Amino acid sequence: MRDAASSSGTVGEATYQLIRSAIVFGRLAPGQRLRLDRLRTEYGTSVSTLREILNRLTSEGLVSAEGQKGFAVAPVSLAELSELAEMRLLLEQHALELSFAAGDLEWEGRVVAAHHKLSRMERVLLDGKSTDAADWKRYDWEFHHSLISACGSPELLEIHAGVYDKYLRYQMVVGIFRGEIATVEHSELLTCALERRLDRAKLVLDTHVRACVEAIAERQALPEHRLAA
User: Fold this and answer.
1) How far is the C-alpha of 71 from the C-alpha of 114, rounded, in Å?
2) CATH 1.10.10.10: which residues of the chain?
């Protein structure tokens, strides 16, 4: 049992992380109503704490406040995905430049280790074996984060992480994996990092992110498309 001194703040933060993760990884679907009574039962958290959490997630763009109707998971749209992709590229390419300039042997080690885990997971997917999509995307995040981890700016890393999560939500909602081409792009990003080939890395990243948006658009897989069909 938790003691009283650790209760509200710790429990509230843990619940925030759980609900946020459920949204980012698509377990709570876009547009789904977030009923306080159900959340209270599921997470064992007070209604007042849940309201604070949902208002916090609203400020992050992951939840929509619906006035007297309460809260719902934020909807998705191709327009927002395109905007998130542009923001991710702006932040990540700038952070790449800083990280490539400052990266040392320890940084190179982190990049190599993160790529090794990601490539193993991608091989599982390419072999047609089932795996938890959340594990795959966690390794994808670790690799991309490792590439920019030497940028020297905690603020830049925090902003990038928030944008990445919202971009990731689209991948999880659609369940998209571009196959061998994505693994090749990741391998090339690794080579560019070790050889400090910044211009090429920026170009590969640009292709990597935009191709994912294009694939989602071509499949017309977002809920907004399914509702219009």
Assistant:
1) 37
2) 4-73
Q: Does domain 4-73 have CATH number 1.10.10.10?
A: yes
Q: Give dist(CA 82, CA 16) in Å, integer.
A: 27
Q: How far apart are the first and last CA of the chain?
A: 51
> Under a CB-based contact definition with an 8 Å cutoff, are residues 76 and 224 in contact?
yes
Task: Please tell me the class of the 78-228 domain.
Answer: mainly alpha
Backbone angles phi, psi at 64, to 5 degrees: -110, 130
pLDDT digits (tens, 9 = 90+) for 137-152: 889 999 999 999 999 9
Quick one: pLDDT at residue 134?
Answer: 78
- H/E run at residue 224: helix 223-228
Handedness of CA 212, 217, 221, 227 (dihedral sign): positive
The pLDDT tens digits of the residues spanning 28-84 come to 999 999 999 999 999 998 999 999 999 999 999 999 997 777 899 999 999 999 999
Query: Of 147, 141, 149, nearest to 165 (Cα)?
Result: 141
H/E stretch holding 5: none
